[in-house]
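Whiteboard transcription, Tuesday session. T.W. wrote the C-alpha cells on the left side:
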C-alpha cells in the first residue's frame, strides 16, 4: 500500500516539474523589435510584464529606436510635425485571398516560361504568420508522347504592405505515354 502511495506521489511530482518547465504561451510566439516596422506597431504588442522584452529600459515605450509614427510625444514636447499627427497605420495582415491572387499570378508566369506545361492552378493556401502565406500549385502539360506534371510551392509575403509571391520549390515529372 505504501509503495503505491510513494509511486503516485513520485508521478505527481514529476508531472508538476514537467509543467513548470513547459514554455509559457508568450514564449510560444516570441516577438522582438525586428518584427515591427514602426514604434507604434511595436507598442501594440507591449503587454503588462513585457513578456516579449520590447521595453529595454522599462519606461513603458516599446522599441524606441524604430522609426515613427510613434505612440508617444517627442522628447522636445510641443506640437508634433504634421506628418506625425496622423494616426499610425494598422498592422498589416496578409489575407489568404490576396495571397491566393499573388500565387495565381506566379503560377501563370511559371506556365508562360516553361514550354512543357500549358495550364496551372493554385490549390490549398496555409497561413504561417500575419505576413506569410504558403500556397500549393500544380502545372500540367501534354504532348503526343509525354505528360508533364509540376508541383509548386509558392511563398507569399507582405512586402511594404503588398503581397509578393515567389516560387519556393518546383518538382516536375514527365512520363512517356507511348
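and on the right, the sequence the group agreed on:
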Amino acid at each position: 500500500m505504501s509503495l503505491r502511495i510513494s509511486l503516485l506521489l513520485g508521478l505527481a511530482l514529476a508531472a508538476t516539474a514537467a509543467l513548470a518547465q513547459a514554455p509559457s504561451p508568450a514564449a510560444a510566439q516570441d516577438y522582438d523589435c525586428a518584427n515591427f516596422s514602426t514604434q507604434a506597431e511595436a507598442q501594440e504588442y507591449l503587454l503588462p510584464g513585457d513578456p516579449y522584452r520590447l521595453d529595454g529600459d522599462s519606461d513603458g515605450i516599446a522599441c524606441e529606436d524604430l522609426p515613427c509614427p510613434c505612440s508617444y510625444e517627442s522628447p522636445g514636447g510641443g506640437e508634433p510635425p504634421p506628418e506625425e499627427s496622423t494616426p499610425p497605420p494598422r498592422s498589416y495582415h496578409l489575407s489568404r485571398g490576396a495571397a491566393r491572387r499573388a500565387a495565381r499570378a506566379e503560377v501563370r508566369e511559371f506556365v508562360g516560361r516553361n514550354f512543357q506545361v500549358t495550364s496551372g492552378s493554385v490549390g490549398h493556401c496555409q497561413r504561417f504568420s500575419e505576413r506569410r502565406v504558403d500556397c500549393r500549385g500544380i502545372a500540367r502539360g501534354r504532348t503526343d508522347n509525354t505528360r508533364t506534371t509540376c508541383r509548386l510551392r509558392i511563398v507569399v509575403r507582405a512586402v511594404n504592405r503588398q503581397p509578393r509571391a515567389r516560387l519556393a520549390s518546383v518538382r516536375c515529372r514527365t512520363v512517356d505515354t507511348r
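Someone added at the bottom: The CA atoms of residues 55 and 62 lie 5 Å apart.
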